[in-house]
């Protein structure tokens, strides 16, 4: 079988199709949860008919996905065990991808069936942690827990914890401000009556907020599936996807010059310590897990940069790199780029000139490996939109009627969605994943609280239970599925 210029065996082709199918299934189920939140207000208030609403939302999800930078996608990948990211085409790499997707799909389907707006972000991150913990437990010489990038996990947990609080508080405040400044617009503060649509200006406002949440959701949440799909393609078709083959010669020469110029920065910190290339890879993998930099870390960066320079010297474009060497070049770039990024976050370099040079160098490195083809973005957006069309109703009813003791008013829906849009876009710029579900649901709860409408404790208890259980359940599901997949792939399929 020929695909993207590479020859695949029947079994490898089958694994590729299965993995891509699971990744798109995850995004399809994601549509049940997250995109359904975006259309909840316009459908519940009869602003738009369901078919029109989900198609409109899907279109803006597509635009959000297509204009996204990919920072969230690769932020999620940074949570994965380094050795599995670098060897995603191995049997363990396949087991990792299948475990992540299967466990996330199982939990998302279960919570959707119960009508709970659960978080796909939480689900995926829990599954990633389960895979990392299982990998550290099952790999010889590893300490339990080393398989998780705890520094990155801390950043992600903070964003997932803070965003619902922001959603609740800001949505409540926005509704109070609207009551004070728009008190004469009585229609805005009424709940829908029968199937009668609201006045035109209110319909326009609600369509605008739905559009904003859909765009923000695509730009943030849609990236998770894109990152996983690219990881699959890199593992199975490294010749085509390990590197951005569209990189122009000028950019490549600039990267080569940068890789040579920063070596002195690392050698100065290494203080005479040197490491062979293999030991350098091990040292940087360890640094990415622990975040503890030593002289050996800088020696490893110097060694990896010299290797990178050697691989790029004389190459006018990345297509000139031999196919078997592309995955090795990607590994060099990944280790150097992630390590430089971590050092910059830790303020390891005080000199402004060094900081500027390293920041620019990291951006150049990211441009070579952190790219997402347009067809991947379009496919993910279609999967999200189709999922919304199939499963929107359960979540819409929960958001509209079961969070507060009174039905959702137009002003409450608009306030919650405006805050959700702003919160998600802010997180997108920071490269952090947030839950559209948690932000919007907490925003609705905040408006109910501000409106003194009362909150349905039963629904809130179920939402909180889903929020609390998602992480531990998905950690267990991810670990168990990873172990089972390893057995099947190693023993039944014979892939090492």
UniProtKB/TrEMBL annotation:
It catalyses: phosphate(in) + H(+)(in) = phosphate(out) + H(+)(out). GO terms for cellular component: plasma membrane. GO terms for molecular function: phosphate transmembrane transporter activity; symporter activity. Signal peptide: none annotated. Pfam families: PHO4. The chain crosses the membrane at residues 59-80, 92-112, 124-144, 156-178, 228-246, 464-490. It is a multi-pass membrane protein. Keywords: Cell membrane, Membrane, Phosphate transport, Symport, Transmembrane, Transmembrane helix, Transport. This is Phosphate transporter.
């Amino acid at each position: 079988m020929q695909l993207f210029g590479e020859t695949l065996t029947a079994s490898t082709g089958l694994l590729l199709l299965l993995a891509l199918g699971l990744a798109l299934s995850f995004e399809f189920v994601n549509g049940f949860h997250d995109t359904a939140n975006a259309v909840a207000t316009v459908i519940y208030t009869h602003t738009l008919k369901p078919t029109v609403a989900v198609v409109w939302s899907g279109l803006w999800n597509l635009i959000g996905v297509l204009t996204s930078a990919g920072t969230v996608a690769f932020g999620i990948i940074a949570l994965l065990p380094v050795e599995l990211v670098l060897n995603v085409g191995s049997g363990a790499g396949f087991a990792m991808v299948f475990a992540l997707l299967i466990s996330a799909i199982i939990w998302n389907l279960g919570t959707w069936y119960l009508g709970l707006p659960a978080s796909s972000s939480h689900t995926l991150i829990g599954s990633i942690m389960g895979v990392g913990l299982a990998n550290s437990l099952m790999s010889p010489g590893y300490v339990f827990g080393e398989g998780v990038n705890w520094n990155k996990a801390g950043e992600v947990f903070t964003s997932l914890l803070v965003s619902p609080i922001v959603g609740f508080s800001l949505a409540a405040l926005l509704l109070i401000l609207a009551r004070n400044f728009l008190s004469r617009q009585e229609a805005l503060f009424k709940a829908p009556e029968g199937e009668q649509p609201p006045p035109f200006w209110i319909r326009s406002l609600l369509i605008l907020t739905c559009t904003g949440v859909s765009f923000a959701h695509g730009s943030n949440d849609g990236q998770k599936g894109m990152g996983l799909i690219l990881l699959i393609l890199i593992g199975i078709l490294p010749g085509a996807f390990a590197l951005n083959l569209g990189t122009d010669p000028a950019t490549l020469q600039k990267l080569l010059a940068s890789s040579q110029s920063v070596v002195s920065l690392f050698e100065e910190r290494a203080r005479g310590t040197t490491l062979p290339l293999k030991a350098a890879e091990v040292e940087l993998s360890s640094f990415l897990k622990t975040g503890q930099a030593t002289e050996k870390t800088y020696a490893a960066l110097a060694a990896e940069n010299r290797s990178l320079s050697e691989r790029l010297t004389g190459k006018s474009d990345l297509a000139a790199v031999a196919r078997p060497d592309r995955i090795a070049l990607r590994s060099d770039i990944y280790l150097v780029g992630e390590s430089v990024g971590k050092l910059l976050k830790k303020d390891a370099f005080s000199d402004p000139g060094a900081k500027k040079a390293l920041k620019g160098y990291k951006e150049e490195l990211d441009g070579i490996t952190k790219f997402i083809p347009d067809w991947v973005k379009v496919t993910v957006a279609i999967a999200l939109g189709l999922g919304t069309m199939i499963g929107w109703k359960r979540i819409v009813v929960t958001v509209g009627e079961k969070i507060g003791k009174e039905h959702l008013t137009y002003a409450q829906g608009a306030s919650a969605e405006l805050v959700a849009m702003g919160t998600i876009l802010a997180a997108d710029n920071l490269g952090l994943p947030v839950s559209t579900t948690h932000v919007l649901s907490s925003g609705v709860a905040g408006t109910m609280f501000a409106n003194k409408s009362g909150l349905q404790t039963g629904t809130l208890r179920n939402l909180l239970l889903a929020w609390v259980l998602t992480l531990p359940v998905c950690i267990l599901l991810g670990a168990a599925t990873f172990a089972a997949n390893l057995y099947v792939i190693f023993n039944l399929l014979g892939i090492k």
